[in-house]
Amino acid sequence: MNKVHWQSPSNIALVKYWGKHGVQLPSNPNLSFSLSECNTSTELQWKEGNGRVDLVLNGESKERYTARIRDYIRSIDSQFPMLMELDLHIDSTNTFPHSAGIASSASAMSSLALCLCSMEEEITGKKLPEDKFFQRASNIARLGSGSAARSVYGGFVSWGKSDKLPGSSDKYGSPLPFEVHESFSDLRDTILIVDERIKPVSSRAGHKRMAKHPYAQQRFKLARKNFADLTEALKKGDDPNFIRIVEAEALGLHSLMMSSNPGYVLLKANTMNIIHRIRAFRELSCIPFCYTLDAGPNVHLLYHDNDSSELEEFITEELLLYCSDKYRIDDHIGTGPKKL
To answer: What is the fold of 182-332?
Structure first.
């Protein structure tokens, strides 16, 4: 069998994507940064066949995820006409808990999309310019998982059309088209694992509940403003506004879940204990650090590298008490996918 192999990062959204329209198009522009250590490595093997798809995830065959990947492959056969004449074997491995609210679908689907685009180039012998290759991969990844559109790039990435960013699109992610202030070039992310179990309500189900959400339009309007304000904060190195917007977006995301119909809660008691500790220590220490949350109970602690030594004791002595088996993942802003 022929094969290609890509490693692609997870990302942490600062302005959240929650709610979509059309075919996996975001209802508001959103912004994230790609991680380094939290990633998915996907090897795609192919041979002539009749469209069979097999998946191994973290060393195991899991029918639930295999069925989803088969549906995804069928949904993009117009993009890759050769797919129905090939048998595919996909071997995917995560470095972090799957489906626990750390954007595992972003790294998984982006790494698979990159493999598919590389496979296409090998079969056809036609290579796209690098920028067009990643743009196409971002579009293909989006069709499997919206947030995956951002994971085909490193650093800070936006997704969604915005008048504030030339070249932005609902169909694919883009690196920010301006120089981010040097103070944000070294961001660290310590992920505090409150609960590593699979969350009871998937992000896909959560997005569907936004369709009739009573606060949807207000949310999208606020997200557009937060997006514009955060891009300015990144340009200027504005820690106070960065902290304000990122934490408001985190809590806003979970308030949308709780006020959905039916509503649901992914936060745990220890999620809130960590948040209270962070706020208290920040006020006491005057260190510019903050938290954010993805669609799960685990807390991302964001801080500058030069503050890491001062925060280490706080993390170890106070925050890990609320983590499952004192489980943490130390990560930082990353450079993007790698072809292996």
So the answer is: Alpha-Beta Plaits (3.30.70)
